[in-house]
Specification:
binds adenosine monophosphate, 2 domains, Rossmann fold, alpha/beta, 10 helices, 282 residues, three-stranded antiparallel sheet, Pantoate--beta-alanine Ligase, Chain: A,domain 2
Length: 282
């Protein structure tokens, strides 16, 4: 497995791989867990070679967010990825990704504005910008993202369509279902911030979401089900709720009724200073 930190050797390595087949890209911020490794395994089913990027992208962190505290463990990550048969790890530093004079921003309006975009201004500009750069750097045939970050996946799909990225494959961007712990908590690098006590309480999030989804299917009005969800979270040990919304799964427009089969429940909530997000079909 090659570990590459500069753009020129990256281009050469990808060109060499492409001689013997297709390339799938799995973008990550590192601190690998089973969610990331599931993306890698799905990528391996879809392409001859898997490239994983590891880059803690400063542009997607707000001024008061956890950029400095975010877990960084490149060596351990590379051991895990090597075991999965990954062909190359693209691990640029911030200077390689954003050289002096860097000035371009990608903003995907509308779909970036609500939910996490409202709670984290500029976050999705940072995500769209770095993912566009990663696509141009690696030029993958396909790229895989977790459904765990549902809004991120929607933003990236919109950007790829709008900018004609990684053509001609129409379904080149693949969403992978969320990998969860036994108690239902979605795996996340940020779970490492939780003490054992808070980690146990955090399972209130998927539990409350499943309950709300069941109530919605039973015909409980959306506002009532969402209020119940918020109450369950606060009673379950969460400190505050950034948002709890029922939205159209593709456009992310809020829904006031459960219609059709494309509704999705999206939640962001804080526990002990850690912000957790999750989403499920409703
Ligand atoms: P991150 O390193 O947190 O930026 O995540 C890298 C990729 O892994 C993103 O596409 C995430 O959506 C995905 N991912 C993170 N957690 C999970 C999970 N629990 N299940 C599936 N995919 C995940």
């Amino acid at each position: 497995m090659q570990i590459i930190r500069q753009i020129d050797p990256l281009r050469a390595a990808v060109a060499a791989l492409r001689q013997s087949g297709s390339v799938a890209l799995v973008p990550t911020m590192g601190a690998m867990h089973e969610g990331h490794l599931t993306l890698v395994r799905e990528a391996a089913k879809r392409a001859a070679h898997v490239a994983v990027s590891i880059f803690v992208n400063p542009r997607q962190f707000g001024a008061n967010e956890d950029l400095d505290a975010y877990p960084r463990q490149l060596e351990r990550d590379c051991v895990l990825l090597d075991r999965e048969g990954v062909a190359l790890v693209w691990a640029p530093d911030a200077a390689a990704m954003y050289p002096a004079g860097y000035a371009t921003n990608i903003a995907v309006s509308g779909i970036s504005d609500g939910l996490c975009g409202a709670a984290r201004p500029g976050h999705f500009d940072g995500v769209a910008t770095v993912v566009c750069k990663l696509f141009n750097q690696v030029r993958p045939d396909t790229a895989l993202f977790g459904e765990k970050d549902w809004q991120q996946l929607a933003v990236i799909r919109r950007m790829a369509r709008d900018l004609d990225l990684i053509l001609p494959a129409v379904n080149a961007i693949i969403g992978v279902p969320t990998v969860r712990e036994a108690d239902g908590l979605a795996l996340s690098s940020r779970n490492a911030y939780l003490s054992a006590d808070l980690r146990a309480r955090a399972a209130a999030l998927p539990r409350a979401m499943q309950r709300a989804a069941a109530r919605l299917r039973d015909g409980v009005p959306v506002a009532v089900a969402l209020a119940g969800l918020a109450q369950d979270l606060l009673e379950g040990g969460f400190d505050s709720i950034d948002y709890a919304e029922l939205v159209d799964a593709e456009t992310l427009v809020p829904l006031d009724a459960l219609t059709g089969n494309s509704a999705r429940l999206l939640v962001a909530a804080r526990i002990g200073g850690t912000r957790l997000i999750d989403n499920i079909p409703a």
